[in-house]
Amino acid sequence: GENVEQHPSTLSVQEGDSAVIKCTYSDSASNYFPWYKQELGKRPQLIIDIRSNVGEKKDQRIAVTLNKTAKHFSLHITETQPEDSAVYFCAASIVSGGSYIPTFGRGTSLIVHP
Amino acid sequence: NAGVTQTPKFQVLKTGQSMTLQCAQDMNHNSMYWYRQDPGMGLRLIYYSASEGTTDKGEVPNGYNVSRLNKREFSLRLESAAPSQTSVYFCAAAGNQPQHFGDGTRLSIL
Q1: For the segment B54-67, what is each residue's pLDDT rounded down to a tens digit?
Q2: Beta-carbon neighbour count of residue B100 at 10 Å?
Q3: In B14-86, at which residue ranges do the beta strands (DSSP E only) sit?
Q4: Which of B30, B40, B102 is the closest to A43 by Cβ?
Q5: Could you count the other beta carbons within 10 Å of the beta carbon of residue B16?
Q6: What is the pLDDT of residues A52-77, one digit of tens each?
Q7: Measured between alpha carbons, how far is B55 from B48 in angstroms, rounded to an integer?
Q8: Which residue of B has its CA nearest to A87?
Q9: Start-to-end C-alpha separation, chain B
């Protein structure tokens, strides 16, 4: 089955700095890669996703890059703000017909210091 | 439009007790999922249902059963609760992608 490794487990930055979280996956057939943000005591919520036919996607201060050859993808947050503090999860999945079962990384706790 | 609704939000059980966690979605999605979340372990899939009438085991199914009652509802049952099942449980639903999560059930087993 799919295996997703996520690093680092904890990331501490100063407000205004950039933050990068990296994930690797094992199954070359994986074709959909979502990122979720989970604030303390809340549900995971999708912040950005990318499909295997795209190398990069941006949404304001957030971007995701995908390297299919190396089987890794990364989340980039620029101009970090205290409200970006949360746990971030990456996931990889094979979307085929009606089947969609993502495998999650273990999460990165991002702390943004004012 | 509530999305994915889980009940209860909190529960304390004694070892050996049974209970059912309820999940309902109003997004008309075919697939539904149950996860458990433990510190440092991310989200681990317990069971999922790709469509009404079908269920399949995920990564950590032991000690749990599920029922896909209809397209809207997917319940998770603990027949004989154990302290190792203390966790936060999330239900999710998905059409194509991505998944939408409920608010979670915090379950403590003493």
Answers
A1: 999 999 999 999 99
A2: 18
A3: 19-25, 31-38, 42-49, 56-57, 64-68, 74-78
A4: B102
A5: 10
A6: 888 999 999 999 999 999 999 999 99
A7: 6
A8: B42
A9: 36
Q: Say whether pLDDT at B44 is over 90.
A: yes
Pair of tokens at residue B70: 């209809």
The share of chain B scoring above pLDDT 90, in percent, equals 85
Distance CA(B78)–CA(B33), nearest Å, equals 16
Residues of chain A with pLDDT under 70: 98
Cis bond before residue A114 (omega within 30° of 0)? no
As beta bridge partners, residue A91 has: A104
Is B31–A43 a contact, with Cβ atoms under 8 angstroms apart?
Answer: no
Taking the CA of residue B82 and the nearest CA in chain A, the distance in Å comes to 23
Q: Given this model, what pLDDT does residue A53 score? A: 85
Torsion, Cα of B36, A103, A57, B93 (10° steps) = -50
Q: What pLDDT shows up at residue B2? A: 75
Q: Does B91 touch chain A (CB under 8 A)?
A: no
* pLDDT of B86 above 90: yes
Question: Cis omega before residue A82 (within 30°)?
Answer: no
- Whose tokens are 């749990």? That residue is B64
State the CB neighbour count (10 A cutoff) for residue A63: 17
The answer to whether A49 touches B97, Cβ cutoff 8 Å, is yes
Cα distance between residue A16 and residue A80, in whole Å: 5
